[in-house]
Design a protein that fits this description.
- The complex is a heterodimer.
- Chain A has 13 helices and four strands.
- Chain A is mainly alpha-helical.
- Chain A has a single domain, classed as ABC transporter involved in vitamin B12 uptake, BtuC (Orthogonal Bundle), CATH 1.10.3470.
- The two termini of chain A are 15 Å apart.
- The N terminus of chain A is likely disordered.
- Chain B is built from ten helices and twelve strands.
- About 8% of the residues of chain B have low confidence.
- Classes of the chains: A mainly alpha, B alpha/beta.
- At the A-B interface, helix 2, helix 4, helix 5, helix 10 and helix 12 of A face helix 1, helix 2, strand 7, helix 7 and helix 8 of B.
């Protein structure tokens, strides 16, 4: 069996992003045609970007985790718990707003730390460990909110989800900044190169002196913080906290990363691809709504398009490898 | 050794986190957990002279009647109020209470039925996820001799001893009728419907009632249905998409107040949030009547809500179960009213959202004519 050289593997990584861009443009054109151009109006482009922010942020963290052959199922739970605690502190305990934001971020970091330490040091399987923390965080959010919607958040909180800066929503700027950070981290920092090495061959990475444990803990902490940032945006958009926040988001974040070319086998993919993957998912949702498709069939269509997109990309990549 | 220490530390972090959450302001509500274990065992207030239920859930030999309540979720204010008030009333009557939450998982719901059977309850109350699918399990416990009462959601294919409900179709119809009355040929309605989870009975019935009420009315057109799945964030996105598609929308019908905050904030972002009485106001009709919806009416953004009262459901269900246990005749079907809340009556004290929040044990025993307290 021929082991791909580093040069070849690098080429594969780059061309994966190219693949998702092709899929993105196919869906963009298709939706534009089927909606009579409504989907490519500036207001709808902003709408799609805004809807992409929460899943996009979670997908950034998820990408790092999956590159390291891991998975983080707790992202939705972290969002729910951060929202619940943040909203209660803001509305019922008169804690200063910026402190509440800090607490929300710390919650994400703490859950990420627990995930990371359990997986990196105790060698717990990532799937089971993060599923357990998903249950814990969701359960705590349920308990804290007791079924209630916590509304009446301070007006300043609307800044993340409802305000614009240079005609573009603040949430989109936030996604842009974090995505750029993720891309830079993976491309130009030692940490990023080590992450690919860990995903490609963890044992070889360890033997070459990479601190696998430390890096692994860091990526789960990043994933937790990204989920908390997503929670900031969600609560800012709807100006309330509910137990349903974040429900099912883990699957969308994983799908975004995979559509974007992140390999579940690890060591491959990038943040840019994951963001485009998120846009693909949101564009499908948005396009179906703009077309007025019955909600009874929307889920099936969405699943079918995602399936098709991934199948196309896998076939294309296999062809490239064969060439 | 190092790993063992770490495992202990991580466990402690989790435990401390859980302990911290026990300071929740809702601790006093005694919300039952999803594991089926009995929650905080408050002493029944049998000696309280003001407690008309005192002693009614106690057998002649002094042991309490055991009631098991299987419900489908804990994520909404409706269910939280209903389950907590049922528990509070039952304990005030001196009974023992067990709560099981299925989280919309039919398997869990059926398992809970089986688990309850092992506990030999005196009465079972059920709020199923799916009216048809739960029927064999209900029939099985009834065949084993246990009385079953259904609340809010019925059972299709088995006949519980009694069904306490408000008509979900009627709730949708009340919203439809409000729109028929408040729009006209000169001022036609272009309606966006934000549905609940359309795979669920409740959402389908609420949709059916609304559609029946506006069917054939030529000045009301439902231009889009979006599944908000009982989530504010999905409702928010749905509003954005719908107004991109059709900016002429001037009315919104939503299946529940649980999605109201997303709708209001979504309209705000679209610069379409205008209070009633001003040009450009979008008429909003909803169901349930929780605090979010009531605040929407007070702010002038929400026009009408068909109330679905969880507290009334709880009061009637508890009285019906107590009456059954005391050998009194009960009805097979208790159909509750569907009043409409508007700006004129939003502050009336009879609405469940106007009761003191979370203070279930201090709420009065609700007086109602549907099913009186046994022996009174």
């Amino acid at each position: 069996m021929k082991i791909p050289l580093m040069k070849e593997r690098k080429k594969t990584k780059q061309s994966t992003s190219g693949g998702v861009i092709i899929i993105f443009f196919i869906i963009l054109v298709l939706v534009a045609v089927l909606t009579g151009g409504k989907s490519i109006r500036w207001s709808n482009i902003v709408n799609v970007l805004m809807q992409s922010t929460t899943i996009g942020l979670m997908a950034i963290g998820m990408t790092l985790v999956i590159i390291d052959r891991g998975i983080d199922l707790s992202v939705g739970g972290v969002a729910a718990l951060s929202s619940a605690i943040g909203a209660i502190l803001m509305t019922q305990h008169n804690v200063p707003w910026f402190l509440c934001i800090l607490v929300m971020l710390v919650i994400g970091a703490l859950v990420g730390l627990v995930n990371g330490m359990s997986i990196a040091i105790l060698k717990m399987p990532a799937f089971i460990c993060t599923m357990a923390t998903l249950k814990i965080t969701q359960g705590l959010a349920h308990y804290i909110l007791n079924g209630k919607t916590i509304f009446g958040l301070p007006e300043i909180h609307a800044v993340f989800g409802q305000k614009n800066f240079l005609s573009i929503p603040v949430s989109v700027w936030m996604l842009g900044v974090f995505a750029a950070g993720g891309i830079l981290l993976l491309k130009f920092f030692k940490f990023g190169r080590e992450l690919y090495a860990m995903g490609g061959n963890p044992k070889a990475a360890w033997l070459s002196g990479i601190n696998v444990r430390k890096n692994r803990i860091i990526i789960y902490v990043i994933s937790g913080v990204m989920s908390s940032v997503a929670a900031l945006i969600i609560t800012s958009r709807i100006m309330c906290a509910q137990v349903s926040i974040g429900e099912g988001n883990e699957l969308d974040a994983i799908a975004s990363a995979v559509i974007g070319g992140v390999s579940m086998a690890g060591g491959e993919g990038g943040v840019a691809g994951a963001i485009i993957g998120t846009l693909v998912i949101v564009m499908i949702n948005n396009g179906l709504n703009l077309m007025g498709i019955s909600p009874y069939i929307q889920t099936a269509i969405k699943g079918f398009v995602i399936f098709l997109a991934i199948a196309m990309d896998v076939i294309r990549r296999r062809k490239e490898l064969a060439d | 050794m190092k790993n063992k220490c770490l495992a202990i530390i991580l466990t402690l972090v989790m435990v401390l986190g859980l302990a911290a959450c026990s300071d929740s302001p809702d601790e006093s509500s005694g919300q039952p957990d999803s594991s089926g274990k009995e929650t905080e065992d408050k002493p029944a207030q049998e000696t309280d002279a003001d407690n008309p239920l005192a002693g009614l859930a106690v057998k002649e030999d002094g042991t309490p009647y055991l009631m098991g309540y299987i419900y489908n979720e804990t994520g909404s204010g409706w269910m939280s109020n209903n389950t907590s008030y049922v528990e509070s009333l039952w304990k005030r009557a001196g009974g023992e209470f067990y709560g099981f939450c299925s989280d919309y998982d039919l398997n869990k719901e059926i398992s809970a039925m089986e688990d309850l059977k092992q506990m030999e309850p005196d009465v079972i109350l059920v709020h199923p996820s799916d009216s048809s699918a739960i029927a064999p399990a209900v029939q099985s416990v009834m065949d084993a001799g246990y009385p079953v009462f259904a609340v809010d959601m019925g059972v299709i294919g088995a006949k519980p001893d009694s069904f306490i409900h408000a008509d979900q179709v009627e709730m949708g119809r009340a919203c439809g009728e409000y729109m028929v009355e408040n729009f006209s040929k000169e001022n036609p309605a272009v309606v966006l419907e934000i549905a609940g989870g359309l795979q669920q009975d409740g959402a389908q019935q609420r949709q059916k009632g609304f559609h029946e009420a506006v069917e054939g009315v030529d000045y009301i057109e439902i231009v889009q249905i979006i599944d908000g799945n009982w989530e504010s964030s999905k409702a928010f996105d749905g509003v954005q998409d719908a107004f991109e598609r059709n900016s002429k929308i001037n009315a919104i019908y939503t299946h529940s107040d649980i999605m109201m905050q997303g709708i209001i904030e979504g309209l705000k972002v679209k610069n379409r949030l205008v209070p009633a009485g001003e040009d450009g106001h979008i008429v909003i009709c909803s169901i349930d009547g929780d605090q979010t919806g009531m605040q929407g009416i007070r702010d002038g953004y929400v026009d009408a809500i068909a109330e679905n009262n969880p507290v009334m459901h709880a009061a009637v269900a508890v009285n019906a179960m107590l009456s059954y246990l005391h050998g009194e005749t009960i009805k097979e079907d208790y159909l509750l009213e569907v009043p409409v809340i508007t700006a004129e009556n939003v502050d009336d004290s009879q609405w469940w959202a106007n009761l003191p929040e979370g203070d279930f044990d201090n709420w009065p025993v609700m007086e109602q004519d549907f099913c009186p307290i046994p022996g009174k």
